[in-house]
Specification:
There is one protein chain. This protein is of the alpha/beta class and 285 residues long. It contains eight helices and 15 strands. Helix 3 links the parallel strand 3 and strand 4.
């Protein structure tokens, strides 16, 4: 991930390991100390039951709950905080891509896409999904997906990055999901709604994500963020800052070509002469 300090960089998630059902059955191996707590999300009860039956062959997977639609899925993810979500993409109303775009802020679960439509699964996988399963789900394919999940478990930075990429992907109907950005606090990586970000501020090599609640360490450089956020409400106001203009509450002139922006949390940013024209044009002042 661009801009991530070397000490925090993690291995790529897509690696091959040999773990599977045989690793946990009849070979004297101990069960994992902590099971993978999974949430099954599908509007078809039969599909959930089939997946539940297939997962029963894996002693290290615990079914934490089920959800029949996107709204219920979001509530259960907030309530249960599962390690893993098997997410159907094609649900009426709030679909799978919508769920990804509206995941609660915090340390996100690992998401495995489940779909009957190959083109949706391939697009999601290319965008950053850990893995995808085509219905009907086979035991062999499920085993491979769980191997990837186990390899990625505990690497919350990579999980958050994959979901942030997925949140940039349009859903099956063409509507864009709410976009996400990855921020770090200590050893934990959080998925943050861009609407809740007030600004990105650089201090030498470090980039901070500023929200009303707290600040997070960005996993990307300010240049990368600037490129990714083209066409959004974020505007470069200085070589060291990107500001969400939706959170600007006051704009005060300092001179004919310099402005002082006050954000909704009271924080202030000086707009450089170089960026003044773009900021005033975007704010339509």
């Amino acid at each position: 991930m661009a801009g991530l300090p070397p000490a925090a960089a993690a291995a790529r998630p897509f690696m091959t390991i040999s773990s599977g059902p045989a690793d946990y059955r009849g070979n004297g191996c101990k069960m994992p100390s902590t099971a993978l707590r999974a949430l099954l999300v599908d509007d078809e009860p039969i599909a959930r039951q089939v997946l539940r039956d297939e997962l029963s062959a894996f002693p290290d997977v615990e079914i934490a709950g089920e959800a029949a639609n996107g709204n219920d899925a979001l509530r259960e993810i907030e309530r249960l905080r599962p390690d893993l979500v098997f997410l159907d993409l094609e649900m009426p109303g709030v679909g799978g891509f919508d769920v990804i775009g509206r995941l609660p802020e915090g340390v996100p679960p690992i998401v495995v896409i489940v779909t009957a439509y190959n083109q949706h699964a391939v697009r999601a996988f290319e965008a950053g999904a850990l893995d995808y399963l085509l219905k009907p789900v086979s035991q062999e394919r499920l085993e491979k997906a769980l191997a990837r999940v186990r390899a990625l478990r505990g690497k919350s930075g990579e999980v958050a990055a994959s979901l942030a990429r997925l949140s940039d992907t349009a859903g099956p109907g063409g509507a864009p999901c709410a976009r996400k950005v990855v921020g770090r606090v200590g050893a934990e990586y959080h998925l943050i709604d861009l609407d809740n970000v007030l600004a990105f501020q650089a201090e030498r090599e470090i980039v901070w994500i500023l929200t009303n609640r707290q600040r997070y360490l960005s996993t990307q450089t300010l240049r990368n963020l600037d490129e990714r956020l083209i066409g959004t409400s974020f505007q470069r106001v200085h070589r060291n800052a990107l500001v969400n203009v939706n959170h600007v509450r006051k704009m005060s002139p300092l001179s004919s070509q310099r402005w002082l922006l006050t954000l909704s949390n009271g924080q202030e940013f000086i707009v450089s002469k170089r960026q003044a024209h773009g900021v005033t044009q975007l704010l339509q002042w």
